[in-house]
């Protein structure tokens, strides 16, 4: 049983489980310190657990994240949650800072190796790290004791026996660290879990402390230097506020993540962006960790839905004069309902302004999705470069691979076993080529691309052909216009309610209607036939095929008139 030598209150159940596991299963000579704050320059960082074993001092970060977690670069992509910065990267930095603090207190502690370990407590947690960059520093609860006891983790040049240094380490920690008494809180938002981050921003999942049981939100907490000179501080603030400024320019939309709030802590050493906690998977998880690997198991129709949502979001963003500028699969979330949502607006351009944050883009851009004109000059990012990135993403989603480098041309064949371009409408593949045109001016805008995609996915059915055989005639036809109108009794001529005359067309659904076409479509070429064959009106004009039908119906239309004449004659003659 390990000895607990101090600490604050655990923040969540995951931390309690790790502390209890170490207390109950670790060797008796191990020392345990938990939930402390360690000073670093003018700042502090939080440490969940510190364990002093017989050969090293280990800094532990506890994560309750569940399910499959894929590592790509410095980002973690969990299932059904938004991606966040690798906690391993941050934890190793904290370990180096702690080592510097110990050495500053006692120089002889420079020989002690400070290890770092992320513990995943979820029973179904699985880390997938193709590059092997983070996996060495990650373990589950069942492997925690064995990993901590592994002497081979000690780097060369450090001691493998900490026994002579145990007292000095505890004294140095006691003189430098302080216990954490409460979970972090930013405004009314109380942190439930720290997701990760880097030296610039830390991401948390939080709830509203004043509303118990409220839904969770995502906090992006940006660090700032409150003691910096005015000019660099102003530049830092412009970068920090950029995402919020961009999102406030964009009205609410189901395909764009929503910003709820933005504020600074009292001394302006932190700025907090509050976002919806989208319950979905990053689009990256539907693609392989390798840029040219196969895509995930999304059916073809669902992939087209994702592409359509991305274009829908991009058209909405551009319509509000915002350019994303860093579009990649990491910036697209696919919700549990199958809706794609656009995120990642930290480097967006919210309309014309006097300053720019484009100088930061080279540090974050994925060159696979950068338009040719922006590869060396990110400041040239435009709405057209967003469309290019969307075209690359769409191609990767639909085919399972990135397009071949160079100018768009006939794309390569399908990846074996995966969706091929043949399973996608040819018009869609043509649209993706146009979106990736090397010339920005030749690319469609996002709204045009969206309209073209919808037309390609749902082409209009051709108009139904007219009925064959004789044209049907109603049983009762309206009487001809009175003789006072000045027009001959011609069934092809009618008088409107406003007194204007026009030549009648066949009723809707007849051959005449089919010839003219339904409303909103261009009329078909009218076929003309000789008057003596098709039937001429009183004015001698040749009629169309539809008018011939009206001419053939003339005898039934005159019959009511003869009936009225016979009635008048009988009344006049008394017969």
Automatic annotation (TrEMBL):
<keyword id="KW-0547">Nucleotide-binding</keyword>
<dbReference type="Pfam" id="PF00069">
    <property type="entry name" value="Pkinase"/>
</dbReference>
<feature type="domain" description="Protein kinase">
    <location>
        <begin position="189"/>
        <end position="455"/>
    </location>
</feature>
<feature type="compositionally biased region" description="Basic residues">
    <location>
        <begin position="565"/>
        <end position="575"/>
    </location>
</feature>
<dbReference type="InterPro" id="IPR011528">
    <property type="entry name" value="NERD"/>
</dbReference>
<dbReference type="InterPro" id="IPR011009">
    <property type="entry name" value="Kinase-like_dom_sf"/>
</dbReference>
<feature type="compositionally biased region" description="Pro residues">
    <location>
        <begin position="461"/>
        <end position="483"/>
    </location>
</feature>
<dbReference type="Pfam" id="PF08378">
    <property type="entry name" value="NERD"/>
</dbReference>
<keyword id="KW-0808">Transferase</keyword>
<feature type="domain" description="NERD">
    <location>
        <begin position="10"/>
        <end position="121"/>
    </location>
</feature>
<dbReference type="InterPro" id="IPR000719">
    <property type="entry name" value="Prot_kinase_dom"/>
</dbReference>
<feature type="region of interest" description="Disordered">
    <location>
        <begin position="456"/>
        <end position="575"/>
    </location>
</feature>
<keyword id="KW-0067">ATP-binding</keyword>
<protein>
    <recommendedName>
        <fullName>Protein kinase</fullName>
    </recommendedName>
</protein>
<keyword id="KW-0418">Kinase</keyword>
């Amino acid at each position: 049983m390990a000895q607990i030598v101090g600490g604050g209150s655990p923040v969540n159940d995951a931390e309690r489980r790790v502390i209890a596991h170490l207390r109950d299963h670790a060797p008796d000579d191990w020392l345990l310190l938990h939930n402390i704050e360690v000073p670093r320059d003018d700042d502090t960082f939080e440490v969940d657990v510190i364990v002093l074993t017989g050969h090293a001092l280990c800094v532990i970060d506890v994560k309750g994240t569940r399910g499959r977690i894929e590592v790509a670069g410095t980002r973690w992509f969990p299932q059904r949650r938004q991606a966040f910065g690798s906690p391993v990267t941050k934890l190793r930095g904290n370990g180096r800072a702690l080592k510097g603090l110990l050495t500053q207190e006692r120089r002889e502690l420079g020989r002690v190796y400070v290890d770092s370990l992320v513990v995943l407590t979820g029973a179904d947690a699985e880390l997938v790290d193709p590059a092997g960059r983070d996996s060495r520093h990650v373990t589950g609860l069942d492997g925690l004791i064995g990993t901590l006891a592994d002497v081979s983790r000690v780097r060369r040049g450090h001691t493998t026996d900490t026994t002579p240094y145990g007292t000095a380490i505890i004294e140095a920690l006691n003189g430098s660290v302080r216990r954490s008494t409460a979970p972090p809180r930013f405004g009314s938002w109380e942190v439930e879990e720290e997701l990760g981050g880097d030296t610039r921003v830390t991401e948390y999942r939080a709830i509203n402390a004043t509303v118990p049981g409220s839904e969770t939100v995502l906090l992006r907490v940006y660090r700032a230097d409150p003691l910096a000179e005015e000019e660099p501080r102003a530049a830092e603030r412009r970068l920090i506020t950029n995402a919020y400024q961009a999102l406030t320019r964009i009205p609410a939309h189901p395909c764009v993540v929503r910003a709820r709030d933005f504020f600074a802590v009292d001394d302006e050493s932190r700025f907090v962006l509050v976002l919806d906690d989208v319950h979905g998977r990053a689009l990256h998880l539907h693609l392989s960790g390798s840029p040219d690997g196969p895509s995930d198991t999304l059916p073809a129709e669902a992939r087209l839905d994702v592409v359509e949502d991305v274009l829908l979001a991009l058209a909405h963003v551009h319509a509000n004069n915002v350019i994303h500028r860093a579009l990649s699969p990491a910036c697209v979330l696919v919700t549990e309902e199958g809706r794609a949502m656009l995120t990642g607006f930290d480097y967006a351009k919210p309309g014309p302004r006097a300053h720019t944050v484009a100088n930061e883009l080279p540090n974050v851009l994925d060159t696979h999705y950068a338009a040719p004109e922006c590869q060396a000059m990110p400041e040239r990012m435009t709405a057209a470069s967003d469309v290019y990135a969307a075209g690359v993403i769409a191609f990767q989603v639909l085919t399972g691979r990135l397009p071949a480098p160079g100018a768009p041309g006939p794309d390569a064949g399908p990846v074996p076993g995966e969706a091929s371009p043949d399973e996608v409408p040819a018009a869609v593949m043509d649209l993706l080529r146009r979106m990736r045109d090397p010339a920005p001016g030749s690319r469609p805008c996002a709204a045009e691309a969206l309209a073209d995609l919808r037309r390609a996915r749902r082409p209009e059915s051709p108009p139904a052909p007219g009925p064959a055989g004789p044209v049907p005639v109603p049983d009762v036809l309206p009487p001809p216009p009175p003789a006072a109108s000045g027009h001959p009794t011609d069934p092809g001529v009618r008088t409107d309610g406003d007194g204007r005359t026009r030549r009648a067309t066949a009723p809707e659904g007849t051959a005449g209607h089919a010839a003219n076409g339904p409303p909103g479509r261009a009329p078909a070429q009218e076929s003309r036939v000789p008057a003596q064959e098709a039937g001429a009106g009183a004015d001698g004009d040749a009629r169309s095929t539809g008018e011939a039908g009206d001419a053939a119906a003339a005898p039934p239309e005159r019959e009511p008139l003869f009936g009225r004449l016979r009635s008048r004659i009988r009344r006049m003659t008394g017969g």
